[in-house]
Amino acid sequence: MFEYSFMQNACIVALLISLVCPMIGMFLVLRRYSMIGDALSHASLAGVAVGLLIDVNPIISAFCLTSFFGVLIEALRNQFRRYAELVLIIVLSLSVGIAITIISAGLVHTNVESFLFGSILTVSSTDVWSVVILSIISLTTILWLYPQLVMITFDEDGARVAGVRVKLINYIFSILVAATISVSIRIVGILVISSLIALPVATALQLQKGFRRTLQFSVLFSFIDILTGLFVSYWIDAAPGGVTAITSVVLLLFVLLGKQLRLSLGQRQKRKELKA
């Protein structure tokens, strides 16, 4: 399996995705911004369509256009404070409208199915380098802004009082989300990127650990989800995006079941101690 260059490229990209997605997803989930990730993942289709139209690497074009939409969401969010969900509808309508117009008009002569569902066959060496560069930039920025991001996540008003440049960091974070989505397109696919950002974090939260331990477990679960999806999709000849999404949900259910069993055993043990 690993003698094929496309599989080697896919594994490199998958490893980077398993690290970047949960690190961004942790802050999105805790701030209850998961739907922003979903909106931007669908908006990335416009970036892919534009890239194919002007013959630019779709990952780079998706990053550029998704970054624009991420900044637009943050700007509009300040204008629609009481109706924040309207911002997502506006961005979704604009981005998906652009994508559908370009694709349906026949201006793009490349099959976009691999971008929608993910594919291990279409990951080129150019894509790998694009993902590596965007991942390094994302991880470096997260580490640089980590204390400020944690403060904003738990108390945005308190962070503002403490002198943190909340507005600027929110704009930077929007671009980080765009970068995360862009690096995931080739393997996971546009339609299920949001599940990879949110579900490993949701699974790790069930363990009820501290912030750093939850982040570590999120990366571990993301690693399991992506590699399982990659290998299973190779053997059954299916799109890795769908298999990865199913794996994410199954792992979450497994952890929830284990948590419930542990609580039941704990309650049973307490009743035995009370009877004794």
UniProtKB/TrEMBL annotation:
Compartments it resides in: Cell membrane; Membrane
Entry membrane topology: Multi-pass membrane protein
CDD domains, alphabetized: TM_ABC_iron-siderophores_like
Transmembrane segments: 6-29, 59-76, 83-108, 128-146, 158-181, 187-205, 217-236, 242-261
Entry keyword set: Membrane, Transmembrane, Transmembrane helix, Transport
Principal location listed in the UniProt entry: membrane
Domain of life, source organism: Bacteria
Protein family membership: Belongs to the ABC-3 integral membrane protein family.
Name of the protein in question: Metal ABC transporter permease
The organism of origin for this protein: Megasphaera hominis
